[in-house]
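Minutes, structural biology subgroup

Action item carried over from last meeting: produce the structure token record for SET domain-containing protein (Cannabis sativa). EB confirmed the sequence was re-checked against the source entry. Recorded below for completeness.
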Amino acid sequence: MTIAGATSADLLDILQPAMLSPRMISEMEEGFDILKSAFKVAKFPDEKMAFLTKQWYTGILARIRINAFRIECAGGLYEDLLQAAAASVEAEGAVGNAVYMLPSFYNHDCDPNTHIIWIESADAKVMALRDVEEGEELRICYIDASMDRDARQTFLSQGFGFHCTCLRCMSGD
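Output recorded by EB:
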């Protein structure tokens, strides 16, 4: 979209980038080299590619990695959506990923007070999982909250680049 001029190169700068391991950065840099070579072979004009630097590319991928939501095919009655979504995750049934700006600002908690519900039009709605106090931050769980503490910590560190300090993790649960 940036190359086509449909959006600016700094569109996702408002989102915080993930903390990346040296291995992840290396993989992204390899991907950048492949992408840059493909654009050269396709003879894209240099002026259209001026924004495309290794730093920009890894920064965008980091922001997408930590803020993307899985897009899954789920259908049927509303009551069946949770079961269908769980089956889709189990079967790795995602058809893609998308960044939704407002839901991307929700922070993680292993004992969240809200959950994002995706409806057929790919719109996001937030559902409270319990009573939420006035002024309380709305938080979602980025992962499968049924995992034990060590598994959650590993998954969040490797997949999202942070060490979880929510009350549940700090209590050792």
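Discussion: The chain has a mean pLDDT of 79.
Next step: EB to file the record with the rest of the batch.
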